[in-house]
Amino acid sequence: MQQLHLIQNQLSFSDFNQQFVRLVSEDDSLLFLNDSVYSLLKNEFSTNQFETLAAKISICLIDEHINARNISALCNDFRIIDYPEFVGLSLKASKVLSW
Amino acid sequence: MVTTNIMIRSTSLNGADFKEAIDLGLVCAAFDQQVNLIFVDAGINNLIANQSASILKDKNQIDILKGLEFYDIDNIFLEKESLENSRLTMDNLLPTIQLVSTKELNNLNLNADNLVTF
């Protein structure tokens, strides 16, 4: 069963890599919420290391959070979901971890 | 003339720091101080054009950036290195922003009478 990881705050790729990636399994989903979506605009999140990880797991963003910040054009590589889909992901996951 | 540099590292949709930074700038300008607003790190995300906080039922606080010149705040700086560390380009950002290098930013801060970070 997959886990759903909710990332709430902005983080650097080194924080992401050191503290977080080791606890993520291939079936897991990552949902970037609120200001954490800005993290994905950092160049350090465009490295091969991140792209390899992104190919294995599902990285999601909520449409309202990126549209309000007018960064949707920069988030094409990720799965964009709405609130009902967020609820669906939460129900489907065996555990929800908030970071 | 007293110069106050206000460095903004926080974003407008996360807490009150951004609004407090702008409010401080307006107060300083009202007392005839030279105000330099300097956006660094995550603060550069405030400068993305056409944001719509109303989608989140929030107030569009960044709109005030477009009218600061009417309050005699003409200097809005963006650290070049912060922009280079991001996938954003100047095309994504509000106009009338001046790019400064980290060295120029340090000189701005050294020459200021007051420096406040939000």
Structure characterization notes:
The complex is a heterodimer of chains A (99) and B (118). By secondary structure, chain A is of the alpha/beta class. Chain A has one domain: DsrEFH-like (Hypothetical Protein Ychn, Chain: A, 3-Layer(aba) Sandwich). In chain A, 33% of the residues lie in helices and 21% in strands. Chain A has helices at residues 13-20, 48-56, 63-68, 83-92; strands spanning 3-7, 29-32, 58-62, 79-81, 95-98. A five-stranded parallel sheet of chain A has the order 4-3-2-1-5. The two termini of chain A are 19 Å apart. Chain B contains three helices and five strands; from the N terminus they run E-H-E-E-H-E-H-E. The model of chain B has no long low-confidence stretch (mean pLDDT 94). In chain B, helix 2 links the parallel strand 3 (75-79) and strand 4 (98-100). Chain B has a single domain, classed as DsrEFH-like (Hypothetical Protein Ychn, Chain: A). Chain B has a five-stranded parallel sheet with strand order 4-3-2-1-5. The relative contact order of chain B is 0.26. Chain B has 118 residues and is α/β, with parallel strands linked by helices. Chain B has helices at residues 17-30, 80-84, 102-111; strands at 3-8, 34-39, 75-79, 98-100, 114-117. At the A-B interface, helix 3 of A face loops of B.
